[in-house]
Amino acid sequence: MTTTVKQILDQKGNKTISVRPEDTVFAALSLMAEFDIGSVIVTENDHLLGIFTERDYARKVVLKGLVSKDVRIGELMTPNPCTVSPSSTVDEVMRTMTENRFRHLPVVDHGRIVGIVTIGDMVKSIVSQQEATIRQLSSYISGDLATN
């Protein structure tokens, strides 16, 4: 069975934490720490403008010697991020993440942000699928399944 992004969001929840472009990097980091997340969505009037991640912080703030309380998210966010839809499959999302070296992807449905998926979500889903396959094969081999 192919798992979709919608199924993953149904399991983990679809709450997204967003900031405005005029918010400081420090404010975004505070939210990321509070909610134990690795990224925030940047929005204005419920419209997706960008994404800001831990990697952005490390590369665009720390390595450049900037002060997080003095810099606005809009200056450092990744604008117009790649997105996936609820109907995207885990395989499709993994391909996109791997090819582009992304760890977080916003989920958009008809222009509306409905969640965010991470590389961790994808790995967890794949491991779960593999465990289910192993259980089925073990049951088959041990004769626990009825054969037709």
Automatic annotation (TrEMBL):
<dbReference type="Pfam" id="PF00571">
    <property type="entry name" value="CBS"/>
</dbReference>
<dbReference type="InterPro" id="IPR044725">
    <property type="entry name" value="CBSX3_CBS_dom"/>
</dbReference>
<keyword id="KW-0129">CBS domain</keyword>
<dbReference type="InterPro" id="IPR046342">
    <property type="entry name" value="CBS_dom_sf"/>
</dbReference>
<protein>
    <submittedName>
        <fullName>CBS domain-containing protein</fullName>
    </submittedName>
</protein>
<feature type="domain" description="CBS">
    <location>
        <begin position="1"/>
        <end position="71"/>
    </location>
</feature>
<dbReference type="InterPro" id="IPR000644">
    <property type="entry name" value="CBS_dom"/>
</dbReference>
<dbReference type="InterPro" id="IPR051257">
    <property type="entry name" value="Diverse_CBS-Domain"/>
</dbReference>
<feature type="domain" description="CBS">
    <location>
        <begin position="77"/>
        <end position="133"/>
    </location>
</feature>
